[in-house]
TrEMBL record:
It comes from Cajanus cajan (Pigeon pea). GO terms for biological process: phosphatidic acid biosynthetic process. GO terms for molecular function: 1-acylglycerol-3-phosphate O-acyltransferase activity. CDD domains: LPLAT_AGPAT-like (cd07989). Keywords: Acyltransferase, Membrane, Transferase, Transmembrane, Transmembrane helix. InterPro entries: Plipid/glycerol_acylTrfase. Signal peptide: none annotated. This is Phospholipid/glycerol acyltransferase domain-containing protein. Residues 113-226 form the Phospholipid/glycerol acyltransferase domain. The keyword Protease does not apply.
């Protein structure tokens, strides 16, 4: 028997895994594989407790202010988005740090724009809300039925979408164009769904058609790290890690295909380096 194999066999498997993780510089340095799973699940449970607790109290403020928002700021709804920013910030602060790069590239808050980003995790929405921009998301209609969260989305003016329904998709794009013409901004995940492996998927052209037809600038954003902290399909865990948000310079143009290719290339350039 090889001496190296004999020495390795003396150690339990979890110790070997821990050594390999430490050598790789993982966020879980010093923990065995079973310990990492337990810690991540515990952090996940705490994450949902914190977000639910914060949502209940902040939703009351949103509900009280809603009549005035409809009266004075029906389309942008800045007050509601400020509350959403506070909610997202309070939720993520105990669990991971967000680093921003390129904040100077953000358009003026009153400038309607089309924001686009890669999509890796459930945490992407929380991360983007901390930017403090009052853009309208697009979400599945079923989520609006969730207590508190769904109701808050309705107050925010989130745009409902029925997947696999071409008529709903068309109505959604028309509503986005109408909002931009009235001074609001909209946000798209052009991939359409979360990436399972972290690789950037194919972009759909809906967001860029909206931008081209309304002459609104396209603001590409690269999200790095959310997929490692809460992988797609594993929303019950929160791993240790950090998130980086890179805001790129706005793109202008009237050709949806060209805007789509340029935005994807811009986002991919930073995502590949990471």
């Amino acid at each position: 028997v090889s001496p190296k194999l004999w020495v390795r066999s003396k150690f339990p498997r979890d110790v070997v895994v821990r050594s390999e993780l430490t050598a790789a510089g993982s966020a879980g340095d010093g923990y065995s594989l079973p310990e990492l799973k337990v810690v991540s699940k515990a952090r996940g449970a705490c994450f949902y407790v914190v977000t639910a607790f914060a949502a209940v109290f902040l939703f009351m403020l949103m509900m009280v202010g809603h009549p005035l928002v409809l009266l004075f700021d029906r389309y942008r709804r800045k007050f509601h988005h400020f509350i959403a920013k506070v909610w997202a910030s309070l939720t993520v602060a105990p669990f991971f740090k967000i680093e921003f790069e390129g904040l100077e590239n953000l358009p003026h808050p009153d400038t309607p724009a089309v924001y686009v980003s890669n999509h890796q995790s459930f945490l992407d929405i929380y991360t983007l809300l901390t930017l403090g921009r009052s853009f309208k998301f697009i979400s599945k209609t079923g989520i609006f039925l969730y207590p508190i969260i769904g109701w808050a989305m309705f107050f925010l003016g989130v745009i409902p979408l029925k997947r696999m329904d071409s008529r709903s998709q068309l109505d959604c794009l028309k509503r986005c164009m109408d909002l931009i013409k009235k001074g609001a901004s909209v946000f798209f995940f052009p991939e359409g769904t979360r990436s399972k492996d972290g690789k950037l998927g194919t972009f759909k052209k809906g967001a860029f058609s909206v931008a081209a037809k309304t002459n609104a600038p396209v603001v590409p954003i690269t999200l790095i790290g959310t997929g490692q902290i809460m992988p797609a399909g594993k929303e019950g865990i929160v791993n240790v890690g950090s998130v980086k948000v890179v805001i790129h310079k706005p793109l202008d143009g009237k050709d949806p295909d060209l805007l789509c290719k340029e935005a994807r290339k811009t986002i991919a350039s930073v995502l590949t380096q990471s």
